[in-house]
Amino acid sequence: MKYLPLLLVNLSRKKIRTILTIGSFAIALFLFGLLGVIDSAFYQGVDVAGVDRLIVRNKTSLIMPLPIAYKQRLLQLDAVKDVTFASWFGGVYQEPKNFFPQFAVDVDTYRTMYPEFTVADDQWEAFVNDRQGCIVGRKTLERFGWKIGDRIPIQASIYRGVWDFTIRGVYDARRDADDTTQFWFQYAYLNERTPFQKDFVGWYTVRITNPDKAPETVNAIDERFANSSFETTTETEKAFMAGFVKQFGNIKLIILSVGSIVLFTLLLVTGSNMSLSVRERTNEIAILKTIGFGPEKILALVLLESTVYAVLGGAMGLGLCELFTLSGDPTNGLLPVFYLSGETIAMGCGITVLVGLVSGLIPALIAMRLNIVDAMRRV
Amino acid sequence: MAIPLIYNIRSIKERFSSTLVALFSIAGVVAVFVAMLAMAKGFEKTLVASGSPENAIILRGGANSEMESSIELEQARIIGDAPGVARDPDGHPLMSWEVVVVASLPLRSTGTDANVQIRGVSKEALAVRDSVKLIEGRFFNPGLAELVIGKHARDAYAGFDLGNVITIGGRQWTIVGIFDAGGNTFDSEVWCDAQVLNQAFKRPENLFQSVTVRLDSPESLPRLKEAISTDPRLTVSAKSEIAYYADQSIMITTLINVLGFMVASVMGIGAVFGALNTMYSAISARNREIATLRAIGFSGSAVVVSFVMESLLIALLGGLLGALLILPIHGYTASTINWQTFSHMSFAFSITADILVKGLLFALFMGFFGGLFPAIRAARRPIAPALRGL
Amino acid sequence: MAKDPQTQDELITVKNLHKKYTRGSEIIEVLNDVNLNIHKGDFVAFMGPSGSGKTTLLNLLGGLDLPTSGSILVEGEDIAVMSGKRLTAWRARHVGFIFQLYNLIPVMTAFQNVELPLLLTRLSKENRRRHVETALAIVGLADRMDHYPRQLSGGQEQRVAIARAIVADPTFLLCDEPTGDLDRKSANEILDLLTRLVAEHGKTVLMVTHDPLAAKRAGTRFYLEKGVLTDNSPGEEE
After folding, report:
1. Whole-prediction pTM value?
2. Kind of pairing, strands C43-47 and C205-208?
């Protein structure tokens, strides 16, 4: 582009101001990325919910169990293709702050219900054959430096005593948004050792034949168990996960508010910088006009300049944020995922360009309309 | 000798529009910072306020929370006879054996379900817990499926009005009373008879999770602990109620603090940029004045101090503005899920004096860094050309 | 030129003064072996074309810059070897500046502007007030004490600047194109004032100027051309 030298000269003119403007963009976009990361962490479950899966839980509350006999009764329904179940274990590894989710699962059916998680066949085989075996998600495995074959003692909270497990395999997931912090062991082992209520499970996950018929299937299931001692509430996996997040409060509102404050401040800083910059160069702009640069060209030049600041700063900010997420979860396990999603990046780019244009707009219009004679008179 | 402060004050007034950038940047950061601290403090306050220095909570040995614990009726009676437990005028021990469960009920606001904590208690519960006062209706009658609900629970859940009947665990319960616990966790709870609750939730009737006792004096706790741990019939341990609730708040308070700190620090850097911006352009515009002051004989350090002071003044204004803007959230009741009890909990944002001070100090901190480098630069510029307006 | 040690009423003695700038590989000699003597009560004008080095000389004499080599003795002290804080303190005590652009602080009143140099002394508030009032009276602006610079005319601003320059009773006054921005009438008023300061108050005034009429008022005239000082104007006999 032939205007590049002109542009570069302007950028290097007041170095400090250039650095501050680009820096402001970098900071703002870093923060924007961070908010996106927090959002992704909270809505993780919702984002990856399977479209063809439903969660069936005890109507009274999630901590109340369901009879294991329900598995067969659920399979009898036409709309139901597969059924699996799990129970929350909630034990402590060494100390409470080392939290990670532990589930006792139905080894026959769990793996096919969650195809997004992958385990090597021989590892799964070993797990099935060891009643006290467990499969650990990659993130948790790496967090504690465990290896396959390690013996892991977990102090039970809800149940009693110390439970030992041997790691038989590790599961991975394809997407950034998938949770690889989980710890699975055999339901059979839990049922064997539990001091109370045998043959009860925490909840069922059901795969339905037709996702479009989800509402009808939900009703069909709940009707089946209505008026029994263990009534059910069924919802789509997405709705179930969303319900959880809602209980945290209006996270989206908080994120949105903070984000708006940041954007507003960014606009202030960059807008004022561009105004100052343009005002200082009144003379040159006048000269450019006398040479023959039309008003549209002047407008374009100023807007281009402000956009270049924006793009340089925005790229830096988002890039730094990405690096930050790679350094690991600072809450050390309280968040299921900690990554910068594609949507966040795309939105960030959009905002960058938008703010770049908007902050340059008014100064550009002023520059465009500059009366040459007035400009020359201004020393 | 120092450059008079009036120079800085008047200069700020004169070029007020150019200080707006720094002002608003800092105000925004302080507002968010104060809000985060207020959230964490509100949460902590709510939890800690649930504990009284006059009470002790007894759990099964090794249990970290009520939900993990179990205590039989027999053991509860033995605990009631232990030294250090206060007694009512009739000589009965002031204690309440309790069970907590979670039930999924729809919220008024969204219609979706949230987990409400239901606490089965003994009839002495009100006597043991001073903070809880009945404000409407009456306490439940033992043996009946009746509920008394906290004021926050009343506000949060659909159908939670005096006189209504609610279905929980397949049974019908009547709401007979509403209590006010002064804003602590109990306000988000629903209370009923512990044994009735056990039946409804298919638990053994005489198996509870905790026993809360009123101590005859706060200093009696060690005595009680001693008696309990040496009694061979008991496998329980006692803890100060306040300490118990403080532990319960750790996980979420940590989360709020870490996330809040991350966000506030990054925003803080942004605000410093805003301040730098303002100060650099101020110094640019006042180049000649600064050079004149130095020509007259004011030292370089006098110039540095002067401009740092100016930046601090602007930062202070910004901090005050931010604090003022966020002040209205004080007392605003929000609710979230307490990971440790798995239930919905209301808390009020709490802006205390020390939080405001922290916010203002943060503002000054940002102002200092926003002013230091421009000020040093101003003091180092060659005087002679600046005097001629170059 | 005679190069004697300072005699009784020699105020400023400049010996072998050089000022060089390096620009890349080029060395530019702004002042080349300047020697001069200034006595108490002198009214001196420095003239010369643009780039002749006269402003640089003024800056050096006023302690605003340091020479590459040579000495500048003021009342026995060599300021060419002073630096930093010491030079700043010396400047406060010995020099009063008057600039072409007046350089008043816009957000301060005439009174406060004139008071500035006194803040560097240990005078009490009362004493300072008296000095300021006296200075403003000398320049004829006692009634404009509380006005801001933007409320004054160019000539009045310069007079306030002069009051500021004399208020702390400095050893000498340095003027850089004092009439440069003024119309003829105001310029004459300023020159009258400077002349009076020399004649009636015994001040020593060093002035850089383009203006031949201003130069005429001075008792001594020096010419600078390409960094070399003479007391002849080009083409003139002494």
Report:
1. 0.79
2. parallel
